[in-house]
Structure formats: C-alpha cells, structure tokens
Phosphoglycolate phosphatase
Amino acid sequence: MRFQVKLVMFDLDGTLLDTAPQIAEAANRMLVALGKPMLPQAQISSYIGEGVHKLIKRCLTGDMEQEPELALFDKAQPLYHDFYVAHANDSQPFAGVVPALQQLKKQGYLLACVTNKPEAFTLPLLQKAGLAGFFEMVVSGDSLPKKKPDPMQLLHICQKLAVLPAEAMLVGDSETDIQAAHAAGCFVVTVPYGYNQGRAIDVATVDATVQQLTELVRLLEPPALLKQGLEKTIQIS
Ligand SMILES: O=C(O)COP(=O)(O)O
Ligand SMILES: [Mg+2]
C-alpha cells in the first residue's frame, strides 16, 4: 500500500521532537514559583497538544477543561514562558526523525511543520535541533486565527504550496492531529510514542501508523512517479 502524496506535514511536539521533559521542567518551575505542588512528568505530558494556554491552565487546575482564576493564569503565563525559553532548545529529535526527513527531502516531497506551539518557541527549537532547513513552511499555533484541531493551518500550507489537501499527509501523535487532518481532507499517519493526552491512538481513525518516521518512506509513492490529478485513493502495489 502506497500513499500518493506530494506534501508531508509534520506535527512538532511528540512527533519530531521529544519536548515533554523541557515542558514538564518549565511547568513545574512555574508551579513552584506560584506556591503550588509539582506534577509528575507523565501528567504534564498528557496536557500537551492544544497549545500553551491550555497546557498552563491544565497544570494550574489539574484538569483538562477547568478554567483557573484569571489573575493566577495571568501570573503563570510569563513565568512559564521564561522558564521554558531557558531550556526549550535542549529537546532532541525522536529516533528516525533526521534520516526520514533527509530521505523524504531527497525523494522530492514538499515538507512542512504544523504545530500548536507558539511561533516564538517553534522556530528556535527547529533551528537548534537542525530540522528547520527541511521545511518549505512552518506554521505555528499563533501563526493563524485558528489551530489544530481546526484544519486552517493545514489548508493554508496546501494552498501556499499549491497542493490539493487530498495530495497531502499529516504525520502526528494525537487526536488533535487526526481531527485536523480529517477536517482538511488530508491523509493522516500517527506515531505511538508521542503525547496523545496519555491515551493510545485509535488506529481505526487513521490511514496508517508507523513506529518511527523512517517507516514512512516505504508507505509513500515517490512524487516523481505521481501522475497529475490523482484522487484521494490508496494504490495497492
Ligand atoms: O504546543 C502544543 O500544545 C502541541 O504542539 P504540537 O501541535 O506540535 O503537538
Ligand atoms: Mg503533537
């Protein structure tokens, strides 16, 4: 089975980079500065995925949806920002990320990064990890009015790179990615090692899963072999 895509978009946190250790460290420093108890890294990891505001709110309340007091949230935001900036760039790529991006780039795919992380964090992180040069476009959580699970970021990338959504794939680690890809009409492939709110991915809702990104290469039809005007279909080879 090979997917006929020209554009491969990658989620950042939990897919390309293992950012949870630095996020947990910054969140715990924030909690301590606010006189609150620290949280286990696994709990903080389960709060990643819907942007930094939700992450901070979840850390403050210990709940996925509850709203903290506004004054507390206002105090927490700059603390988190400063603590995260100090160590964010220590995050490392997951196994297989660099060779997979090298190979896909060589084969002629358009590559993009689409994350709910704010731009101020995203670009330095990608640069420090040596990944920035692989991507035609990087769209962050605050680059556009809406972010994943809304399809806006994905559709924006497709439009700018002149690729139909049905010729594009999102590779992600979470339900947020799956929903965004479905809403955009893109293929979606997931990795199992990320931060899907502490849950396993529902494999019935995705086009394929890979253990690590190097497995993507054999799932994709090299773009040079693609004919024009393909429908969103999977070719059986
Ligand atoms: O910042 C987040 O909450 C998650 O970012 P991601 O979209 O790269 O997983
Ligand atoms: Mg993610």
User: Anything to note?
Assistant: The pocket of 2-phosphoglycolic acid (ligand 1) is lined by residues 11-14, 48-52, 55, 115-117, 141, 148 (CB under 6 Å). Confidence is low (pLDDT under 50) at residues 227-237. The chain has eight helices and ten strands.
